[in-house]
Every structure is written in structure tokens, then in C-alpha cells.
Amino acid sequence: xxxxxxxRLLLTGAAGGLGKVLRERLKGSAEILRLSDISPxxxxxxxxxxxxxxxxADKTAVHHLVEGVDAICHFGGVSxxxxxxxxxxxxxxxVFHLYEAARKHGVKRIIFASSxxxxxxxxxxxxxxxxxxxxxxxxxxxxxxxxxxLASFYFDRYGIETVSIRIxxxxxxxxxxxxxxxxxxxxxxxxxIERGLFTPDVGHTVVYGASANRDVWWDNRFAAHLGxxxxxxxxxxxxxxxxxxxxxxxxxxxxxxxxxxxxxGPFD
Length: 268
Ligand code: NAI
Ligand code: 15L
Description:
Blueprint: E1 6-12, H1 17-25, E2 30-37, E3 49-53, H2 59-66, E4 71-74, H3 84-105, E5 109-115, E6 128-129, H4 139-158, E7 161-167, H5 179-182, H6 186-198, E8 204-209, E9 218-219, H7 238-242, H8 252-255
Parallel strand pairs: 1-2, 1-4, 2-3, 4-5, 5-7, 6-9, 7-8
Helix pairs in contact: 2-3, 3-4
């Protein structure tokens, strides 16, 4: 695949678990990486980086953040299940502010860090593709559904292209039995983001972010044009994970794609 680096690529969520990883790995994708988060980040390491603290819930701040940017990897926001009031500003208003700013500043390509929690209420014996009806497993999953729909609308109305990656579980290693299916290695995540940034004519593409695990629940037939070929597999961690005590067969982590998220809340 031909990679012609962007002039300036914005990464939101740069202080987070994945943001710190991507800060290193996206260097080749842009001449200048603009890193942003509401939390403090490590200072710039040279002229190829810019660091901007910004609350995604602040529309004016997001407008300024996006100025001069060619493409965006949107990884910022609340990343776990929380009460709706905590999700609203960062995830729902935040993604709206980002797309509005992208429209006003002429950004043409966005990678949206969506989540498997858009479809978390499917059961683990069900294999689904990107056209399966969504079954969000909480307010967090609902916010990611909203982000995907916003991406779809901004493509149809304004031609801004997005790849929404329904990330499974992207950590150094799978931490439990469920993650043997949902695990996405950092190398495969990076490859998928690069495919999303540099493949032409993606419109709004929804792709599941999982490595080449033995038992996958997700079928990427509708994202074949991205040419994503995962290289890693959770199999190398199976013995270590299966040495942990097994949860009961009816534990949500053994039943649902979204695992324990399906049982979070209510919060009153
Ligand atoms: P994380 O929680 O470590 O990072 C999220 C970052 O967003 C944090 O640094 C946080 O300070 C920032 N943030 C929160 N509220 C903000 C606000 N109002 N304004 C600006 N920044 C704000 O999460 P992680 O694991 O790095 O995930 C990154 C993205 O990928 C998230 O959007 C998450 O939903 C998504 N994702 C991650 C998965 C994973 O396995 N790591 C799985 C599925 C989705
Ligand atoms: C997510 O969406 C979360 O951001 C991450 O922290 C994990 O919980 C992951 O899903 C998962 O389902 O394992």
C-alpha cells in the first residue's frame, strides 16, 4: 500500500493507553502529529509533534484543535461503561464537535475508535458482520453507535470519509478467556489504522478490530476493500489465560460479545 504521509494528523486520546502506543506508531503517517487529550501528556520530542490539551466537550476548543489538520484519529473520550451524564460531554458532544470542526476545516479522513460494545449483547455462539443490527450493551456502547451514525451522516452529507474500527480488546495481551476471541494486538491495530488512513474511497466503512484469533465472532466481509490482514493471534497466550480459574458458564464474560459490560449499572 502506498503511504503518502499527511501534513498534519491529529490524534485525540493521546494520554490514554492506546494513545501512548499510537504516538510512537503513527509517526510515519504524518509530517506533524498533533497530540491532544484532556489529561497531561509528555512534552513534544521535536518539531514533528504538537501537544494540545483540549476538552472534547468544549466546542470552541475543539474547533481550534482541528484547524490546520488533514486527518484525524479519534481515540479520546470515556472508554468504559459509566453513567450517561459522564458519557454525554466527552463521547456524544465530543464526537459532534470533532465532525463539525472537521467540516469547517476541510478534513477529509477520520479514523473513529468505535467499540465491540456497539454489538455487545450478541451471544458468543453468534457470528456477525458489520451489517448486523447493533445491540449496544450500555451508555458507552450507545455513544459509539452515535459516533458511527454521525460518521455515516457526515459522509453522505459532506463527503468526509471515516473508518469506524469496532475495536475488540487492544492490550499487550489478552487478559481473560473472552479476550482470546476479542484481542487485537498493537501491531494489528496499527496496521488497521494505516489501512483506514490510506485506502482510497472508504466512504464510511465499519470494520471489526480483532487479531487472527482462533475463535473470532466477527466477519469483516464488508471491509474487504481495506485489505486488512491481521498477523497476530491470541493462541500464543491461550495456555496462560486458561491457567486462570474458569468463570461459570453463565457468567456474562462467557456468554456475550461485550462480556461484563452487559451487566454494568444501573447507576442510580
Ligand atoms: P483510555 O481511557 O486509556 O484513553 C482515553 C483517553 O481519552 C484518556 O487519556 C482520557 O483522558 C481522554 N479523555 C476522556 N475524556 C476526555 C475529554 N472530555 N476530552 C478529551 N480527552 C478525554 O482508553 P484506551 O484504551 O486508550 O482507548 C482509546 C479509544 O479506543 C477510546 O475511544 C476507547 O473507547 C476505544 N476503544 C478501546 C478499546 C481497547 O481495547 N483499548 C476497545 C474498544 C474501543
Ligand atoms: C472497550 O471498548 C474498552 O475501551 C476497553 O477498555 C475494553 O473494555 C474493551 O472494550 C473490551 O471489550 O475488552
